[in-house]
């Protein structure tokens, strides 16, 4: 949350994009077979063009010209030999520590700095790049969008977000769903195959893509529990690794390619100095609290709630995913005016307003209900909201919690705990926190990875994490001259 700006979603545009009328048949560019499609290619491109600014607002761009140029060059080269070279392909590096890559309709592909940090050579990157391009060329993104409805866009844990409430800003959890789209097993397997073919055609050894699944498998059980999109529909990535390795061998034999590139040193040199993990400037979580050094505020997070931080907002989800909290910048600098605007625009019924200050800061807190109507108007459900509007530092911040009205009492204490904890940040150790960075080191030889990492100054409790980052085991002996990753800066001691 480097900045509190937000891109307002046009519900009308989205509705028109998803409701294109009669079914039509189109030829799938990859399979050559006819399939039912609700979305034309031009509409697909328009959807991607409308999603792109939302993705950037949600995640932000990671400014690294050299790495961005590499991503764009390889992406355009691969798109040119794909089945859909005519699309307006776009490849962007986004500022998120989450290990993920994803695509939206129309040829818009995104890689997080988190996944770039976990690649250990160009070939691994190329395989995943081909996988994402494959989702677009095979029209998986279009098929997935065709199954979505406007109501489902705001769906989380069975709770449908009111369109009126969504009009207050980006639909709650909308960005989360957009950035972590799940495809079926067949689509993922087809994209694996296309990733192998595309990366092989531009000269990379696709067997390295297979090896990257080991890293993903280890990450899925790690302390950070950052499960990438690739694992969302595949419970056994180890089996997937075997399949991809076989596909790579077949592709290399069929294409008659030799001297395929891996590009280990060149890739590691590119990511040397890249930010790793959370960037404290954008806010960070520590010991059950969220801290934002640049905007100088803090608030507490209920136990077991999951937090997603983005440039536009902070979102927290209850363990059962049936209650959500959101923090973002409200319009104006007056908390009372912001509260009244929220009541009117969200159509809050039975609104109760309190003007009690929160930790010495002027605040207005609203409790009330928002009625959600089904699209045909035949059914309705009531969402209870509790929102505090706090004036601080020339801004007005909105902290909002919600759940279905019958369930709200189960989450009210947690919501009140967070809302009432918003306060000024004065702790110098939090205000001056620096980001960790990847540091590329060359092995002198005769040491295990564990010994080399300890010698680089890495703390004992970070060894397993950085072993995964390197795609190695701690007991592995490093030959002389081998480049490997360690970490520097931040909170490392």
Automatic annotation (TrEMBL):
Keywords tagged on the record: Hydrolase, Metal-binding, Metalloprotease, Protease, Signal, Zinc
Keyword Metal-binding: yes
Signal peptide: 1-26
InterPro entries, per database record: Mito/Outer_Membr_Metalloprot, Peptidase_M48
CC per GO annotation: membrane
GO biological process terms held by the UniProt record: proteolysis involved in protein catabolic process
Cofactors, names only: Zn(2+)
Peptidase M48 domain span: 66-240
Keyword Protease among record annotations: yes
One of the record's GO molecular function terms: metalloendopeptidase activity
PANTHER family (alphabetical): M48 FAMILY METALLOPEPTIDASE, METALLOENDOPEPTIDASE OMA1
Record's protein name: M48 family metalloprotease
């Amino acid at each position: 949350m480097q900045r509190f700006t937000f891109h307002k979603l046009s519900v009308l545009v989205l509705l028109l994009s998803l409701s294109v009328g009669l079914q039509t048949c189109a030829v799938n560019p990859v399979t050559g077979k006819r399939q039912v499609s609700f979305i034309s290619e031009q509409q697909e491109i328009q959807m991607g063009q409308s999603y792109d600014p939302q993705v950037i607002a949600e995640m932000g761009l990671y400014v690294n010209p050299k790495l961005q140029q590499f991503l764009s060059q390889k992406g355009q080269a691969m798109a040119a030999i794909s089945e859909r070279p005519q699309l307006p392909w776009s490849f962007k590096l986004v500022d998120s520590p989450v290990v993920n890559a994803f695509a939206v309709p129309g040829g818009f592909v995104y890689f997080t700095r988190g996944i770039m940090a976990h690649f250990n050579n160009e070939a691994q990157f190329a395989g995943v790049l081909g996988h994402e391009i494959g989702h677009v060329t095979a029209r998986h993104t279009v098929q997935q969008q065709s199954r979505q409805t406007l109501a489902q866009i705001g769906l989380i844990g069975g709770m449908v977000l009111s369109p009126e409430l969504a009009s207050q800003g980006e639909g709650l959890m909308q960005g989360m769903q957009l950035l972590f789209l799940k495809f079926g097993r067949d689509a993922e397997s087809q994209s694996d195959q296309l990733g192998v073919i595309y990366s092989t055609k531009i000269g990379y050894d696709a067997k390295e893509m297979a090896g990257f699944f080991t890293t993903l498998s280890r990450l899925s059980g790690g302390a950070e529990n950052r499960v990438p999109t690739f694992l969302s529909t595949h419970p056994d990535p180890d089996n997937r690794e075997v399949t991809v390795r076989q596909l790579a061998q077949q592709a290399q034999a069929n294409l008659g390619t030799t001297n395929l590139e891996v590009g280990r040193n060149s890739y590691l040199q590119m990511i040397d100095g890249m930010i790793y993990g959370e960037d404290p400037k954008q806010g960070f979580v520590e010991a059950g609290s969220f801290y934002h050094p640049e905007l100088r505020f803090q608030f507490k997070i209920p136990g077991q709630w999951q937090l997603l931080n983005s440039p536009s907002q902070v979102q927290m989800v209850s363990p059962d995913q049936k209650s959500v909290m959101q923090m973002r910048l409200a319009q104006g600098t007056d908390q009372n005016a912001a509260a009244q605007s929220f009541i009117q625009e969200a159509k809050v019924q039975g609104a109760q307003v309190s003007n009690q200050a929160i930790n010495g800061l002027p605040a207005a807190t609203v409790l009330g209900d928002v009625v959600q109507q089904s699209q045909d108007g035949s059914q309705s459900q009531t969402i209870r909201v509790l929102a505090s509007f706090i004036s601080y530092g020339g801004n007005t911040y909105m902290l909002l919690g919600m759940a279905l009205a019958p369930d709200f009492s189960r989450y009210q204490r947690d919501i009140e705990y967070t809302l009432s904890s918003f306060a000024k940040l004065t702790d110098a150790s939090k205000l001056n926190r620096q980001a960790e960075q990847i540091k590329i080191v060359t092995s002198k030889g005769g040491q295990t990875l564990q010994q080399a990492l300890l010698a680089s100054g890495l703390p004992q409790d970070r060894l397993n994490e950085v072993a995964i980052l390197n795609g190695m085991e701690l007991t592995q002996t490093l030959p002389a001259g081998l480049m490997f990753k360690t970490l520097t800066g931040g909170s490392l001691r």
